[in-house]
Design brief:
5-stranded parallel beta sheet; 39% helix; alpha/beta; 150 residues; 5 strands; 5 helices
Amino acid sequence: MNRLAMGKAVEILLVEDNPGDVRLTLEALHEGKVKNNLAVARDGEEALAILRRHGPHAGAPRPDLILLDLNLPKKDGREVLAEIKADPELKCIPVVVLTTSKSEEDVLRSYELNANCYITKPVDLEQFIRVVRAIEDFWLTLVVLPHVDG
């Protein structure tokens, strides 16, 4: 039985270094239909520390869904995606690439690294909120997410 069916909040990890995009994503998900907890990693190294529960993140819940920007400091999103999908304990967690890059190379590389979907962030404020709500509608309402312990 999934978390939603049990009435539990869905755990989301947002990997994003842009404070404005973090704020908008928080706002869009807060006003959404699905109860969720959003953790934020500001760079790729912090994302992997949260996912692997290292250091101060030892008690972090395992996310049900990851929203991943590609252009990150310290370790970029492509490297993070590759490490997630190569790790037997993390590879089942769906990863939605949510980035400003429209590069065909980034799209192809992300899917080669087993991203679950690739979405280009709109620059328009209302469109951005609409995209986040569409992610919520699809990934948190329609899709059955795996329950991954580890």
